């Protein structure tokens, strides 16, 4: 917080709790600076005669005594100058005066005596295949396959594929005999699978993804033989080698073809490729920090990784699915449609077709998007493809959810409120202080979260015994719940392994896990022991619980239930589930007597690892503070560089990359011959090693990407026991195709940068494709230090994401919205809109849960005949009717945006002044006023939005009067719906659905269902009325004129 923020407070707002301490510290330093400066001036300016003594000896003594005084004062003045730094000084002041702020280790029960070796998380030197000048091109050296023995089935056919020449064994052992399965599963879905013909028990999981882990889409049984009713057609050819085409019958367009390329299939590698049209539009293939439309020179690695949101790199989730949208120009006379690669003529008529492709494979994968083609590679498994015909993005997404991954989980109503979290809250008292500050500054707060600070030495299911006692927690949670608020704690994915030499280090959760055979093993059958926050840890074996005989799910359910008896949480936050381990291999097997151990790196905020980073443009608004922060950051970097240089000097100056070659009959799972472009390089770095073994014998190599998926599965079913009959609320980090049926997702460890505020939009839209409507990010940024402007803009943007949480790391300055008066104001305005829209948002979530609809929508999905929207990812729709156009640029007070559909007559209304937008042409970029504290929001004509008067909590809001916002289209019509239930039950005893229609000056509501709601209708606002109104009736009764108004000015 800069000094302008300290003294620019309005009516005392924006300061409280720790801010008081920080302000006090700053004032102390400023007063000290003035005193020191005045004394220095006095010493130098007063006449020397005033200091003279009667003799020479006395004079010398007086001058000598001045020296330490001067040195002391100069030192104090220097400290004052340092403390002046706006946000750094504010942080420094906190560290001096506040016991609850700072980046000290958050576990207070014990001090680690041992640090895991710093180099324990170092793997082999590898170079990704896509960057390796020595890499072999499979298309050059491999022979491909020939098809034969074609046999028709009830809904398709099968064929044998045999190697067409000498095995190349380029990145694995060639599989010489394959089987092709083609199945027309539905009128809009085609299944194509290529797998080994001969699979035994010993290599089953090398290739087959068990349906008990990931169900496969099934045929509806209604598709006609040979797919005669399907808009997709499969054809194959044997020249020069086997290849296939997938064509859309209705347009004759080839959607995917491997003809002319070679199929490569080995035990640790496969490859197939297809050309793509010029200037293609592909979306999905997550999880990745990238623009919404994937660029045409991108290597998308899919391998779950614990990493702080690098741009374009593989991160937490694995979603091998994409949408391909193609635009056609329509001849106005013949209605013929021709594909256009550059559809820039905004006067022309266009039509789009979207299809989807899903690869059901859990192995590490790499998809190479290049200018004119796509190449798909994987480290194992089968080619198990599902083509979805669409022809719209919405229909593809709906079909994908209904058939492949499951419909999204329905959320409890309260989860749509505002959530506050921080890594660095020190105690229950600290949480109470935060909750009280939200109330003090009149900012709605629904849920307070706790990061790993609450844990007893970072151990799951145990609270710190000093600052987070169960007794104090009970008091805190009783009050919180009585106020209609909620609490969600973090649960990590690794389990502490207690020190066998310390009797006081017992950990019952671990002991019960051993009894349940609940942990992953080494190949020799011993426990696999990695390292995470508590020190040396073991890892729950979800795969072994499904494929083997371990009782991991039962154990996990019991642990959550036991802990709930002590801590009455309302939901669970799952983290580190990629799964992360801070060392390579079973590094703790021989070192358990050193537990509890410190992680092999500095924690954020520890000496030498302070965070002085600020958002882009901070130097323009806070020049002095930015300069000092930069200087301190440079000093830190120099110290680290010196240490690194010393270490580097002791090692070789050249890098020799490890390259492995296939061994007949054996897989090299730790270092497969094909090296994917993995963000950590070696697959074992910062993760459980690929050769770790599950109960039943399967290796981690084949199931790495499923850990996060299965821990969400286990947690969901555990919470069904903890909260019988209630919908579980879970937010998870690592996800797989299908995780959305159990949990929501947050965007992971982002940064307090304007770029990452922008990236939150394409990330959210991508997760709409993946089946996760309950998505949000760490608002204001996780790592680094937010400033007022960024946080104000971000708090307003995130108010229109389904999951809305502010969260940051321990090394950064606190960023609760009440820390800055401008952020307080911006947040209150945005939250008021969000809470008014809660019935609309909840209804949208219900449609996602029951129909596979999306909640956050790309403009191109709703307006699919406007190709200039294909890469629009700085605006989005919340539901079908709310257009959000956030300001994403530092220092800007305007934002450019489009109003889609206006060329076809769509009407947009300003949320704030309720006036219609006029004078805008199709595809026109309009400059919109967006001063700080204002986020442009527009309502789409033709829709009726159910509203409710906002309260301080969702419970309070649900008890308030209803409202309707009727936005008429150009024809004077509108429609909408409202879904109401008890807001929490998994199975509803009664529900209420209301359908609204407006036409010809009449608004009708028709309801169905038995749910009783006693809240009155408070108001109805109709936008776009184009005629004089003389009377208004309600249920055929004329309303008094003082009960309604007509504003003709808008």
UniProtKB/TrEMBL annotation:
> Which parts pass through the membrane?
20-44, 64-86
Q: Into which EC class is this enzyme placed? A: hydrolase
Region of interest (Disordered), ranges: 642-667
- Report domain Glycoside hydrolase family 31 TIM barrel positions: 408-844
Q: What GO MF terms are annotated?
A: alpha-1,4-glucosidase activity; carbohydrate binding
Which SUPFAM superfamilies does the UniProt entry name for this protein?
(Trans)glycosidases, Galactose mutarotase-like, Glycosyl hydrolase domain
Compositionally biased spans, kind Low complexity: 642-663
Q: Which UniProt keywords apply?
A: Glycoprotein, Glycosidase, Hydrolase, Membrane, Transmembrane, Transmembrane helix
Q: What EC numbers are recorded for this enzyme?
A: 3.2.1.20
Query: What domain of life does the UniProt record list for this protein's source?
Result: Eukaryota
Q: Which residues form the Glycosyl hydrolase family 31 C-terminal domain?
A: 852-945
Q: Name one GO biological process term.
A: carbohydrate metabolic process
Catalytic activity, per the record? Answer: Hydrolysis of terminal, non-reducing (1->4)-linked alpha-D-glucose residues with release of alpha-D-glucose
InterPro entries tied to this protein: Gal_mutarotase_sf_dom, GH, Glyco_hydro_31_AS, Glyco_hydro_31_C, Glyco_hydro_31_TIM, Glyco_hydro_b
**Which family, according to the similarity comment?**
Belongs to the glycosyl hydrolase 31 family.
Give the protein name, as stated in the record.
alpha-glucosidase
Identify the gene encoding this protein: agdA
């Amino acid at each position: 917080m800069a000094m302008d923020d300290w003294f620019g407070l309005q009516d005392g707002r924006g300061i409280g709790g720790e801010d008081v301490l920080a302000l006090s510290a700053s004032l102390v330093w400023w007063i000290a600076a003035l005193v020191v400066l005045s004394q220095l001036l006095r010493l130098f300016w007063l006449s020397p005669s005033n200091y003279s003594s009667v003799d020479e000896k006395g004079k010398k003594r007086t001058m000598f005594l001045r020296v330490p005084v001067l040195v002391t004062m100069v030192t104090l003045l220097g400290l004052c100058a340092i403390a002046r730094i706006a946000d750094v000084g504010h942080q420094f002041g906190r560290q001096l005066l506040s016991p609850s702020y700072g980046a000290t280790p958050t576990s207070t029960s014990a001090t680690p005596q041992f640090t895991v070796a710093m180099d324990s998380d170092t793997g082999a030197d590898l170079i990704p295949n896509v960057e390796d000048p020595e890499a072999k091109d499979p298309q050059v050296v491999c022979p491909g396959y020939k098809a034969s023995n074609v046999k028709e089935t009830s809904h398709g056919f099968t064929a044998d594929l045999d190697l067409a020449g000498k095995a190349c064994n380029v990145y694995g052992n060639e599989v010489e005999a394959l089987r092709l399965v083609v199945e027309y599963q539905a009128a809009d879905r085609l299944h194509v699978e290529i797998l080994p013909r001969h699979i035994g028990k010993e290599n089953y999981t090398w290739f087959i993804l068990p349906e008990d882990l990931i169900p496969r889409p099934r045929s509806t049984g209604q598709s006609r033989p040979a797919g005669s009713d399907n808009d997709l057609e499969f054809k194959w050819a044997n020249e020069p080698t086997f290849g296939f085409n997938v064509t859309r019958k209705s347009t004759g367009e080839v959607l995917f073809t491997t003809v002319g390329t070679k199929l490569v299939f080995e035990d640790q590698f496969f490859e197939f490729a297809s050309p793509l049209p010029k200037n293609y539009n592909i979306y999905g293939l997550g999880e990745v920090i990238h623009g919404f439309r994937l660029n045409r020179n991108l290597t998308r690695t899919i391998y779950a990784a614990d990493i702080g949101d690098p741009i374009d790199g593989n991160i937490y989730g694995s979603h091998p699915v994409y949408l391909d949208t193609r635009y056609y120009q329509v001849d106005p006379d013949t209605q013929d449609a021709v594909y256009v690669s550059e559809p820039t003529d905004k006067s022309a008529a266009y039509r789009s077709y979207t299809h989807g492709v899903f690869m059901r494979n859990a192995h590490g994968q790499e998809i190479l998007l290049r200018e004119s083609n796509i190449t798909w590679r994987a480290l194992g498994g089968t080619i198990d493809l599902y083509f979805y015909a669409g022809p719209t993005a919405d229909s593809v997404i709906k079909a994908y959810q209904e058939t492949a991954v499951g419909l999204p989980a329905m959320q409890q109503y309260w989860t749509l409120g505002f959530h506050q979290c921080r890594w660095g809250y020190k105690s229950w008292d600290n949480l109470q202080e935060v909750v009280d500050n939200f109330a003090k500054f009149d900012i709605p707060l629904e849920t307070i979260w706790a990061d790993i600070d609450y844990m007893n030495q970072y151990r799951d299911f145990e609270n710190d015994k000093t600052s987070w006692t169960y007794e104090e927690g009970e008091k805190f949670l009783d009050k919180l719940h009585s106020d209609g608020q909620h609490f969600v704690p973090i649960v990590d994915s690794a389990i502490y392994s207690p020190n066998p030499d310390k009797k006081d280090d017992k950990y019952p959760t671990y002991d019960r896990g051993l009894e349940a055979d609940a942990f992953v093993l080494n190949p020799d059958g011993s426990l696999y022991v990695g390292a995470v926050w508590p020190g040396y840890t073991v890892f729950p074996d979800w795969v072994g619980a499904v494929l083997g005989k371990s009782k991991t799910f039962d154990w996990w359910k019991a642990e959550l239930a036991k802990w709930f008896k002590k801590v009455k949480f309302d939901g669970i936050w799952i983290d580190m589930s990629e799964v992360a381990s801070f060392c390579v291999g079973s590094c703790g097997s021989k070192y358990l007597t050193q537990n509890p151990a410190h992680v092999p790196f500095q924690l954020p905020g520890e000496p030498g690892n302070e965070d002085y980073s600020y958002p882009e443009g901070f130097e323009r608004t806070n020049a002095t503070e930015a300069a000092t922060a930069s200087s301190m950051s440079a000093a830190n970097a120099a110290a680290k560089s010196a240490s690194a240089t010393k270490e580097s000097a002791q090692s070789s100056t050249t890098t020799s990359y490890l390259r492995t070659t296939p061994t007949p009959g054996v897989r090299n799972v730790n270092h497969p011959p094909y090296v994917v472009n993995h963000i950590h390089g070696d697959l074992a770095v910062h993760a459980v090693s690929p050769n770790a073994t599950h109960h039943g014998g399967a290796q981690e190599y084949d199931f790495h990407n499923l850990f996060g998926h299965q821990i969400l599965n286990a947690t969901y079913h555990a919470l069904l026991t903890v909260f019988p009959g209630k919908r579980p609320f879970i937010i998870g980090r690592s996800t797989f195709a299908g995780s959305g049926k159990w949990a929501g997702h947050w965007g992971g460890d982002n940064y307090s940068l304007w770029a990452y505020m922008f990236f939150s939009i394409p990330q959210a839209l991508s997760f709409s494709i993946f089946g996760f409507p309950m998505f949000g990010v760490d608002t204001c940024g996780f790592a680094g230090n937010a400033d007022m402007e960024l946080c104000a803009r971000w708090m307003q943007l995130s108010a229109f994401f389904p999951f809305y949480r502010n969260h940051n790391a321990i090394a950064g300055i606190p960023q609760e919205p009440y820390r800055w008066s401008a952020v307080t104001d911006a947040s209150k305005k945005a939250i008021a809109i969000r809470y008014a829209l809660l019935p609309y948002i909840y209804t949208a979530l219900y449609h996602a849960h029951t129909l596979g609809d999306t909640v956050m929508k790309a403009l191109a999905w709703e307006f699919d005949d406007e190709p200039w929207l294909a890469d629009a990812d700085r605006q989005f729709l919340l539901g079908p009717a709310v257009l959000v156009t956030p300001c994403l640029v530092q220092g800007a007070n305007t934002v450019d945006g489009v109003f889609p559909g206006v060329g076809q007559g769509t009407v947009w209304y300003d949320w704030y002044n309720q006036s219609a937008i006029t004078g805008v042409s199709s595809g026109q970029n309009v400059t919109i006023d967006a001063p700080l504290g204002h986020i442009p929001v527009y309502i789409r004509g033709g829709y009726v939005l159910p509203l409710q008067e906002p309260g301080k909590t969702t419970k309070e809001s649900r008890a308030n009067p209803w409202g309707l916002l009727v936005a008429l289209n150009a024809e004077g019509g509108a429609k909408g719906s409202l879904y109401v239930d008890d807001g929490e039950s998994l199975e509803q005893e009664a529900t209420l659905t209301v359908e609204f229609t407006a036409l010809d000056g009449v608004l009708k509501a028709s309801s169905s269902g038995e749910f009783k709601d006693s809240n009155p209708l408070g108001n109805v606002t109709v936008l776009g009325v184009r005629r004089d109104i003389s009377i208004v009736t309600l249920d055929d009764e004329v309303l008094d004129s003082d009960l309604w108004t007509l504003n003709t000015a808008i």
